[in-house]
Amino acid sequence: MKIHIFYRHYNVEKTDGRGRPKWFDYEKCFSNLLSTLTSDTELHIMFDGDSSTNFISNYKNHYTLYEFKAGSDQESFWETLRYIKEQNIKDDDLIYILENDYLHINDWVSKVKEIFSTYSNLNYVSLYDHNDKYFLPMYENLTSKIFTSLTHHWRNTPSTCGSYITNKKIFDEDFNVHTTIAGDHNKFLQLNQEKGRFVITPIPGLSTHCMEGLLSPTIDWENINNG
């Protein structure tokens, strides 16, 4: 089982000031990801624009590059899906669509392979333990089913962000929904209502979206960021 990572990036460095933790840095997110990869992973950089002047060009030996010009986050996401559709990916391999502002725990690869080996009916797996599920009023009565693998706990959740893992079969079956509906939350709600799809996330998180106040809880992400 190989994990094919499609890393969405554009010509941005350091921080963009969008409510980030004070230590946030795009290159550190990327170098953190590289440090966690194994022989069971394959990295594709989906670069919206010209990568030659971006820090990503310093790591050319670590990835396959695909450059395109989309000009918006939504169009970039859809172009990424179209690119994945054209790749020769085995049915039992995994597809990880990943945004460029995430940090990862070291052993996320083995834990992902473990959960997919434990359960054969998974639809979507996010590595981000969404902190908003613990304090937003809209989730006050949220009920989750708890799953266990050999070394980790997981829960089902209504939706996730634009970074998630699925298999080739689900990717192909849900392609039209993902390439026509905007908005992560609404998209996953529709997939659940129409097709019974579900998302599971780890407890504690194996990654975090690097937004102030929304980091996966119980983990010192600043320390992980500083490596």
The CATH class name reads Alpha Beta
For the biggest sheet, the summary is: 5 strands, mixed
Mean pLDDT: 94
- Strand composition percent: 15-25%
How large is the radius of gyration? 17 Å
Would you identify the regions where 5 or more consecutive residues have pLDDT less than 50?
none
Number of domains: 1
Distance between the termini: 28 Å
User: What's the architecture in CATH terms?
Assistant: Alpha-Beta Complex
Global morphology: globular
The counted number of beta strands is: 11
Q: Tell me the number of helical segments per DSSP (H or I, 4 or more residues long).
A: 6
Strand numbers in spatial order across the main sheet: 3-2-1-4-9
Structural class: alpha/beta
Assign a percent range to the helix content. 25-40%
Q: H/E order of the elements?
A: EHEEHEEHEEEEHHEEH
